[in-house]
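input
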Amino acid sequence: MNDTSRRGPFDLTGKVALVTGSTMGLGEATARVLAAQGAHLIISSRKQEQCDAVAASMREAGLSAEGRACHIGRMEDIEAMYRHIDERHGRIDILVNNAVLSPWRSIEDTDPGIFTKAVEVDLRGYWYMSVEAARRMKTHGGGSIVNIASVAALHPDRMLGLYSTLKTALIGMSRAFALEFGKEQVRVNTVLPGLFQTKLADAYDEEAKARISNRAALGRLGRPEEIGYAVAYLCSPAGAYVTGASLVVDGGLTIASM
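output
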């Protein structure tokens, strides 16, 4: 019996994982799921105090975590994050790109300033976080990168035109990275969440949330930890032959009539 069989196909013991935007919502839930499977988590968002608070609460629950602020829209922050990882851990095994800027406005009202900021976070940030992770992963036998997109990549939302556009681009980015780094055993996948019980869902009023819930095949909004379970699969030995994939996790919303 090999080590994977003995420890289980979802075990992440000894892995160093970074989840961006992990002080709330889907990012925090994902970080907690990965830590529960044995990974050491780097909790990251723009504000250090929030990172420290979440990491401390995880340690109180018996999980392994540290807080490290990083604004992925700033190249200097990305460089500082990876210097920290090199100095403290010497490796990174899992990167979950989750931090996001989601402007709520019409296409006509999307001015060049907000367009640039969204691209810097939602595409450039994901790109260079992934570049730096992949460079390190390929020297340590591989790793897993998961980019959190949205079902809006498949079915654009009104008032979220720019967000939807960049999430569509993210699918292409993941596939390109998966192809280029595959021989080094660096796997890159995309998860496309539907509507979950998070702060982002608060942009919809109760009537709209009920309408979306009723349209989904399962008849409800998602629970944040359910994205964590999907990510854990893609990052674990159970997902070792999965790369370049786009996993829709939406309770059957996109198979319903839109």
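quick obs: Helices lie at 3-7, 25-36, 48-60, 75-88, 112-137, 161-181, 206-215, 224-235.
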